[in-house]
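sorry for the late reply, my laptop died twice this morning and i had to redo everyting from scratch. anyway the thing you sent over, i finally got around to it. pasting the sequence first so we're on the same page, its 172 residues, then the predicted structure underneath. double check i copied it right bc i was rushing
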Amino acid sequence: MDHQYPRQARTSDHPRLVACVQSWWGDSRTPQEARELSLLLPKLFLQHFAGTSLVLEQGTEIDGFLVGFHSADRRDEAYIHFVGVNPALRNQGVARRLYSTFFEQAAAAGRTRVRAITAPANTGSIAFHRAMGFAIEPGTDVVDVTDVTAGVGVHRDYDGPGQDRVAFVREL
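ok and here's the structure:
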């Protein structure tokens, strides 16, 4: 697959990215759950962080996107908030290209650390982040659900009651 270099996101990308989330996660969620997931990507992220967010596309089709930002309060950190890859293109390097570009741009801006989170049940995300060099931060508990999550630190109620998360950190 021959992808162009990811481009900077634009505020005008928002409706297309929301549509991607609702479509791409439709294979593993109900339509209502996919719609709820898209609510994690409000327009404000592209109004305020388009300069640090990325879109990878071929022609008019979006192959993947990464919404991230440089922390205003932690001057040495950047944060990856949301990443999506077209299911037909998974395991073809799309997410790796987006992450690598984000790392390069964060380092060029003087950031030395990148953080991200995921749900403990998202074993694919946990495996991917580990493969990308992220360490899992110790949590308030440990998950031992599958081989991927065995011994993984989880932060209970991280995003509210019952909203447990695995927290990642990667030094640049």
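The longest strand covers residues 61-70.
thats about all i looked at so far, will dig more tmrw
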